[in-house]
């Protein structure tokens, strides 16, 4: 199936567009995406392909009805009326007979037959066109028109009422809304352990280019560490710091990068201590079990 690569490429773009890898946050656009995630996933992975297949089947059904029989009949009629040499060994019609009624009928049926045989190639082109269209307006989590240049004489079509001078711009009639930060799970493996860093709460001001207060990644207040079997989940919040936290983390001055680095060091020490407790607990359980 030659169109599978194009389909997969378009599906991956759609998953990126709908931010499938975003953390399971429960605010703003994340809440909407999470609420509809399974429906969106089902549409991208199943219904999208079914819709395209259904459309092609209708088109193919009309063309394919008795196509072999009609093609053989048209070919036989041409050879019977115009001679064996009317159709070349390649299947093409001799040019001298292209304007005849029988010749035109043969060419029409031949074109339909070839179209059916190239149906997968046409499907691939459909998915390619869809990918091209959506990728022109989406990049790194934002919807914004990308610059394009005409290389084959194709020009932009714009509204025009006959003015001598018409001013226009790529983002006309579009609204830009700052999407804020994109929070994703970060997963890695160490030996047999799978470690997941997950943001479970975030407060990010997205209606302004500049937030009122600095925000940092800190451990979750309620349940920041979960260890089960060979999986470790560390939960974070992204928010402002309380006055007490500013003192505890010793981040009263310096750049945001330096402050986050200090917080990271504190987080590391906290997790290191917790892992030590878990290790002692595991050893105690093993001794008790034995």
Automatic annotation (TrEMBL):
The keyword Methyltransferase applies. One of its GO terms (biological process) is methylation. It comes from the Bacteria. This is DNA methylase N-4/N-6 domain protein. GO terms for molecular function: methyltransferase activity. Keywords: Methyltransferase, Transferase.
